[in-house]
User: Fold these one by one.
Assistant:
Number 1:
Amino acid sequence: MREIIEKNKGIFFATGIFLLYLIPTMEKLSVILPVIASMIWFYTYLSSDNENRVMKIFNLMVYSLPVSFVSIFGQQSKLSYINWFTVFLIILIIFILIGTKDNIKKIKFDLIVKTLIVTMVGLIISYVLNLVFKNTKNSSQFIMIMLFLLTILLSYTYFKDMKVGKKELDKILTSYSKIIVLLSVGIVVQWVLYLNNIKVGRLIHFSNGRLALGLINFDFSFLSLLLVNNIFYIFYAVSKKKIKISYALPIVGLHLFASYLTSARTGLVAFVIVLFLSAFVYVILLNVFKISLRKRVMLFSGAVIVSLVILYIIASGRGFKGSGRNRINVEAVADFMESPIIGKGLGWMGYGFIVPHNFFIQFMVQAGLIFLVPLTMTLTLLLNEIRKKDTFLFLGICVSFVGAMFIPDILNSRFFLVQYMLGIISVNSNKGVENEKNSSLIE
């Protein structure tokens, strides 16, 4: 028991902070709350057995995902942009800058670095020109996107020189997976409490009877995506015999059910699309598992059946109506045609003051082609590098990408940045994750 606690102390500390911010009575201690949390975070940082401070802070970013949309001062505070995830992100940037200041001249300006720089310059040009000539400004969105791009750029250059060992990589992947399990359990507990007339965290009971659960200030669509992302890591763990199938199936079921409880269709639909396509490509066409045709057909059939069941459940519930999104997207495309190069400005909203629910449409109307084209190139190039090294991380990011076709602001989802950073670390690790069997998911 002591060994289990020691191996999962970071998860236990993260759970403690999660509960501190979830329990309503703690709101009365809004001044003391960040002090208590900071002490726990600091102890977590000190107790880490990783000697690299950048990796230590990145671990804290992963642990802080459950409270990444709530202010450090609690749920009632409107300062949600001052959250622990952002705090650790800024510290990470500072640590990387300090760690690379002596090696700036050694940085290799490969295609990915160049496209990242062009993307950042394009965003700045679009923002400044829209600010000067159209008086449209959204500084918070601009800062959020710049932080995302800067972190990717710095992480890519830093980890290219600092090779992460397979053991460290596996630990952070396992921590990420366990944090998502924690979130799924939290959603189910929130649902059970609600059934017993106890309201905790963010929940909305719509007039049509639909209940949406969001833990602590989570966007429902973001949460639904994050919860299903872990399923592909579970598949990886089973394929490498890191976890028994008897453990894996309940965890997969937990994630799917928790994603359903958010009431957002994004996660389940994105998962079904990626599951079907990946099963067809990797199992039927490429036969990556080197198994017989009979087993390949069985696996693919299982994926199809699961997909159909999920789609049936969605159709029986909310259905697949677009909630007016098509009207907003059509309006966005029309406005984009008026200013295709620099867009109409960050923060642009269409009918009903709603942001376009599509990655490409949102950024082409808000920041124009000068930003969208290099951004798409950058994310695609990085994703291709991740695909070559880690299939399961690749599939997880694909789920987020597919989901981004139905929701706005994926760059502000927190976990999307974590996914790409995990991919960058994997690409530059000493050995690929897929070639090793390390610590178990269930310990």
Number 2:
Amino acid sequence: MAPGFANGWHRKATALLVATQLGGCVQTGIIVTSDVLAGLADTAVVTPELRSGAPFIPAYTISDSNVSVLRTARRSVELGEVSRVRTSGDCSPSNLQGNSPPVDCAPEDKVVYCGTGIHSGADETFTQYFQSAFNQELAASEQPASPDRTKVSIALKKIDVYCFIGSHSWELEVIVTIGDRAPYTVKTAYSFEGAFSGALRYQRARHGFVPAVQKTISEIINHPTFRAEYGIEM
């Protein structure tokens, strides 16, 4: 067998093994080199998940309870800007060494859970994921036609997942602004069960993000300010 062919086959076999492990939610140790990607650039083995270096969180699922609340609105709800809060954090290597990165330095599309990355999705940031989720809830609720729509804007201040002994949770913090009303802050924590198995623990973390977003949207639309603006009865 020619050396070039052997090396090419080895790269493909290695990448295939890595792709298979990714699909099985292996806990850590997944390293995809540029050499492997180059050898598989024209094959279906290199998925968007493999290129990202971390499996994606699942697609969003609409919450029936959220839709039920939104359907009672007397005024049409329209989502405005959804953004990420940025201040002036110091992202220099000297500041980050030994410290958790501040929100300004955290990636837009990846969080770390128990030493392993969780990616928001193909060409999608967590901000875009949240925006899409909220719009899906609005579309399902079939908002009434209203000429005086007031937009609700949401700024994501925190999206993180925690891995401690006996405690695993997603934590989200958002700032909500509706028209000229004073902004209000929503902080949510969604706990999920850990596991001794790294693969199972990691899978539960990924799938826990969807109910965490559902819970955050629920607290946004059930807030007294939101209900008063859009005529939603308690």
Number 3:
Amino acid sequence: MAARAKQTLRHCNELYVSEILHAITCDEGTTRRVYDDADLKAVYTAEGQRIADAAIDYPGAWIVIEVTTTQLRREAATAVPDESQIQDIDKLVEELNQIEATITALRGDEAPSPAHLLQATVASCRCSCCRRASPSTPSP
């Protein structure tokens, strides 16, 4: 039960950050700049592909975001070498690997343009904004 509650909390935090990112960038219909993990997973479908929680498209650059609720353990924060520090570092390295995999996918030769990401998002989304944007969505 505790593990399920933690997973729910993590998911809620990811959704909250996503809402904030969309609000900050004024994402609407075909002017999207924020792509959530579901949007990215719809495009980057390679077996074993790891994806960060969000990516923001800026002209000439991407900002890749990984949301985490993991805290340093007290033992690790005291700088006394033990297993807690190793576990915390391993968790951070895991998060960094996820970010790196997303950056690699975005930089790859097959990296789609924001229009491709938008089209994949519109195809899978049922909200009224996306349905209105669908006819004017650029083709790949």
